[in-house]
Amino acid sequence: MRVNACGAVVSVLVLAGSVIAAPPRTEERPVTETIHGDAVTDAYRWLEGDNSDPENMGRLTDEVTGWTDEQNGYTRSVLDNLPGREELEARLRELMEVPSIGSPVAYGDRYFTRKREGDQPQSVVYVRDGIDGEDRVLLDPEQIDPSGLTTISWTAPNPDGSLMAFGMYAAGDENSTLYVMDVETGAWLAEEIPGKVNLSRWLPDSSGFFYSALEDLDDAYSGIQKFHKLGTHHRQDRVLFRQHDLDFFYGDQNLDAERLKYLAGTWGPFANISDDARWVTVGYWTGTNGVDLWGANLTEWMRTGEMNLEPMVMGMSGRPGSSYYNGDTLIMETSIGASNGRVVAIDMHNPAYDNWQDVIPEDERLVIQGVGFARGMICVNYMDAAKSRIALFELDGDPLGDLPLPGIGSAGLVTRDDRAEAFLSFSSYDTPPSIYRVDLASGERSMWYDGSEAVPVDPSQVEVKQVWYDSKDGTKVSMFLVHKKGLSLDGNNPTILYGYGGFDISMTPRFSATMFPWYEAGGVYAIANLRGGGEYGAAWHEAGMLENKQNVFDDFYAAAEWLIDSGYTRPERLGVAGGSNGGLLTGAAVTQRPDLFAAAISAVPLLDMVRYQDFLMARYWVPEYGSAENADQYEFIKVYSPYQNIKPGTNYPAVLFTAGENDTRVHPMHARKMAAAMQAATASDPEADPILLWVDREGGHGQGKPLHLRVRDVADQRIFMMWQTGMLE
């Protein structure tokens, strides 16, 4: 819906080129099935793709490809012809070509970092010898693949920095292949290990390393942990454990078949290995907020091939975090037994939960976001009402005071346990990211990278505030507001409300240069700290998962109503945006409260929650959402699942759905089916309030996109919101 400054509806927008007036028609092919006594009809199941193989659902078919081409053509005809599109995209490109620099990490005397500058499509890995050395290019993905579609997904130098393992994938599929290079010469070793690989730990002498992978890329639940000896073929690598081998983890637990099936579909196992490769903590995820842990002597396994698991904690809520092996003692951050987090000491000779000792007890108000370990210190990054605060402690837990931050915002601290040197990163909605080199022992700091010098915007023109509002059930929820100074609270301001609300993920203040054209044009950006996130501890997360998922949506609607009641905006000028789990949020918003919003962006979303668990890696999320296979969980899923709650004849707001054809996390079938169903159901004028779908053929869930595709995507989303909230009038 577009309105002018006086509130009159503007029904015709003159576009710069040829625009398709309405979406292409989608054929209905109804499939009806009975789910726990309910007859459920799906008119667009054919848009899922080929489902003939239950083990590999949703393979792309030619007819789905053709349908997608038509939808993409329709969407491009609309978005590419909106007035001001070219100017906006040029401005966004300027803002996105500013340097993006990561905090350095030290290995031996070498410092490794990643940068992307100018029009480089991907970030480049750099190394310098000594703190005052010159940066030199170590790995440039554009030199490997001039198309810009190849991404360096991770890097892992060995202890002295003489070697670097790294992962690469292409076109957003996130299926990294591992390689190793000589840092001095830049020469690649013969190692090449495929299969969504990630390095876990180098041996102290760098003769080999442990890594995780998938045995079968077509099976997201085929995780494996292996050991590789340099100079050998990966087919000879020794196996520590397999995700499928539940007897290895639970052989003495006498679990029933239903429980074993459930565990096989969770996030599976992982290994946390000590620097000296003497100890390993083995974990098996039992949910998005639960994990079983065992300890084992890795030296014994290296010698005999036998791994004797000693139970640490079983069947409890909470998760482990960062850790440091101080000899035979594991110092670990965890929310197990502490909703807001704590730091514990665990004797690996006697690692049972009852023997854990608090080093830094849980704080009733502050939530641990992360922990780093420096020489003789524990550095705790707390969230204080969704903002960063860093406190320093000795290894025995004695407090050393707070590390001063440049302001109110989000901070990160990169540490190494062999030195007091650290690198502090900081940003906020009105503060470009900067990096400081800090001596944690003396408190001295110096600027390593000043982001404010590179960004062609004036951050002082905007103001940031945090507000609190009441949700439907009376729960207090916080929200950040960002807008130009001097904003008039006349209810006429174009506003984007953003949310996520899931998986214990926190929405904390972050600088985004690409939001400044929005601010400069008088727009408001609101970010709500919804239940389901991690801003206020594990209990906050649990209050927005499974049968409590409706709380997340209610928190979102209450944020919108607060913005309207407080004079910031009105429904005709309010848009909502979210991606992935946040795409589910905005999909629920337009189906549950279409009256409350003018527009929605639902990026790489989950939308058919009755069938989501059958596709790609989605069974990992059953502990978060539940599954329609379970009769009790189906009862609450069917109430909010966006795809099943589309109502024909409803005046739906304009919606932009996006998906990635190479997404290995969320299947594009969600966006396809939802777009088709809403196009058929909406009673709104498609020229004024269109339902658009963009499926990126060169992208996945969003990770690893080259610069030019990211510029296009941001321009799509921003011009869509400007149009629909009246900013283009």
SSE blueprint:
Layout: E1 31-35, E2 38-42, H1 62-79, H2 85-96, E3 100-101, E4 105-107, E5 110-116, E6 124-129, E7 136-139, H3 141-144, E8 150-157, E9 163-170, E10 177-182, E11 188-193, E12 198-202, E13 208-214, E14 223-229, E15 238-242, H4 246-250, H5 257-264, E16 268-273, E17 279-287, E18 290-297, H6 298-304, E19 310-313, E20 320-326, E21 329-334, E22 342-347, E23 357-360, E24 367-374, E25 377-384, E26 387-394, E27 399-403, E28 410-415, E29 421-428, E30 431-439, E31 445-450, E32 462-470, E33 476-484, E34 495-498, H7 516-520, E35 524-528, H8 538-542, H9 549-565, E36 574-579, H10 581-592, E37 599-603, H11 622-625, H12 631-640, E38 654-660, H13 669-681, E39 691-696, H14 707-724
Parallel strand pairs: 34-35, 34-36, 36-37, 37-38, 38-39
Antiparallel strand pairs: 1-2, 3-5, 4-5, 5-6, 6-7, 8-9, 9-10, 10-11, 12-13, 13-14, 14-15, 16-17, 17-18, 18-19, 20-21, 21-22, 22-23, 24-25, 25-26, 26-27, 28-29, 29-30, 30-31, 32-33, 33-35
Helix pairs in contact: 2-14
